[in-house]
Design the sequence.
């Protein structure tokens, strides 16, 4: 069953025996369920890679949360209101560590986490 | 009322709301010239290819109302406060209002569906305290959003950002069969133009062929894992987020059947069957794609088969639209 199938059915158009179109309720199709699964698995892999980079001090936690939220620099810039070049700068640990709480809080709100969670990457898997 | 596709569903529901009871979802989709294909090779969405099976967000509603000569108001906003105030005033006047939103922060959407997809549409029809009553065509029950939640999705960021866009019909009116007939004709003509005559290689029938040729090169160019992800994205665009299945081809086939009830023109039903065939073939190609992203298939030959499906589909749709262009309207 698809993720959507758990909370609602989907309407599909299909023909009856006479070839006339009617609507059908569907709870998902294996082909598209796996398309979603594969995509999210990739997001997880990117998250793991990002986590490693943060731990080895090659990137700031911002990278991890960008991957977790399937965002790129321009989407993050859109939600925070920061310029893109600033967001890119904040990806560097040395610069990230000097950021004020005001700026960090802005990111934390976009990513739906607390300030502490944002700085430590300690969030539950959901 | 639930629908397969968000914008045609919202269009139908808004028009039914003002008393046009003959409006159905396939009719809204067809009058709005909803069927399309475009593959923008230099654009990336969610690290994958930018592919769409339908026209740009907002077009379906705009086109449908225009062809039925129904006056529509639509508005985008710079200020979030003004966007909310304007919505509240319309609700107080008793209007149901269509809103373009991003799905990423939509709380009732399952997590698996929350990408930065900004072309979703829903209807806001009431307010209780700080909660807005929302009818989402993808959901089968009424949903509530707080003003903060609604503001967040109306001002989603990224590609095709909605910028608080809302639209509504100003006054109630009915539509005669005669008007419907003209609108059907216009909708089909515009769709023929979009699929056959838009210049450039990336849109319409030529776009399908273009994508087919590109897919054959994905394996070498991207490597197997990434090519698999690209195909998964293609299938998601085709089957996900309310396409009615088969990349909207089935809805369009249903529309042509309904059009026949208004215009018993020769050939219309046969062309409808051709779109069903195209929809079937899109689905067959999705099964092939799934074989690749499930890592059951993976040879260059498998990619060739996948690309050839699209070439075959392009041929079917080309012929179908050419026949539509030649229909003799009474």
Sequence:
């Amino acid at each position: 069953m698809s993720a959507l199938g758990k909370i609602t059915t989907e309407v599909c158009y299909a023909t009856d025996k006479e070839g006339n179109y009617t609507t059908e309720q569907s709870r998902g199709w294996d082909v598209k369920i796996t398309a979603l699964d594969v995509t999210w698995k990739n997001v997880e892999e990117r998250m793991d890679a990002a986590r490693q980079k943060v731990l080895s001090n090659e990137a700031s936690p911002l990278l991890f949360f960008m991957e977790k939220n399937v965002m790129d620099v321009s989407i993050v810039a859109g939600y925070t209101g920061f310029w893109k070049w600033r967001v890119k700068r904040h990806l560097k640990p040395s610069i990230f560590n000097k950021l004020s709480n005001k700026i960090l809080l802005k990111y934390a709100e976009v990513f739906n986490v607390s300030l502490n969670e944002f700085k430590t990457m300690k969030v539950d898997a959901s | 009322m639930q629908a397969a596709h968000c914008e045609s569903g919202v269009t139908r529901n808004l028009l039914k709301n003002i008393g046009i009871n003959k409006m159905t979802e396939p009719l809204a989709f067809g009058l709005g010239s909803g069927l399309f294909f475009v593959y923008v090779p230099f654009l990336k969405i969610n690290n994958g290819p930018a592919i769409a099976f339908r026209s740009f967000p907002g077009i379906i509603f705009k086109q449908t109302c225009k062809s039925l000569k129904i006056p529509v108001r639509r508005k985008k906003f710079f200020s979030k406060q003004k966007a909310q105030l304007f919505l509240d005033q319309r609700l107080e006047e008793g209007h149901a209002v269509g809103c373009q939103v991003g799905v990423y922060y939509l709380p009732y959407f399952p997590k698996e569906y929350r990408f930065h997809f900004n072309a979703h549409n829903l209807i806001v029809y009431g307010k209780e305290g700080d909660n807005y009553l929302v009818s989402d065509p993808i959901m089968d029950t009424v949903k509530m959003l707080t003003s903060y939640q609604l503001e967040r999705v109306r001002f989603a960021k990224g590609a095709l950002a909605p910028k608080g866009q809302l639209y509504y019909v100003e006054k109630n009116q009915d539509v005669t069969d005669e008007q419907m007939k003209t609108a059907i004709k216009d909708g089909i003509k515009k769709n023929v133009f979009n699929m056959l005559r838009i210049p450039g290689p990336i849109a319409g029938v030529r776009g399908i062929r273009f994508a087919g040729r590109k897919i054959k090169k994905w394996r070498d160019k991207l490597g197997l894992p990434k090519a698999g992800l690209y195909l998964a994205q293609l299938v998601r665009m085709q089957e996900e987020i309310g396409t009615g299945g088969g990349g909207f081809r089935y809805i369009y086939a249903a529309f042509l059947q309904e059009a026949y009830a208004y215009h018993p023109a020769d050939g219309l039903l046969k062309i409808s069957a051709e779109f069903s065939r195209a929809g079937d073939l899109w689905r067959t190609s999705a099964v092939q794609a799934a074989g690749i992203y499930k890592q059951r298939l993976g040879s260059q030959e498998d990619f060739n088969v996948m690309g050839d499906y699209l070439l075959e589909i392009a041929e079917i749709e080309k012929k179908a639209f050419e026949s539509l262009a030649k229909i003799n309207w009474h």
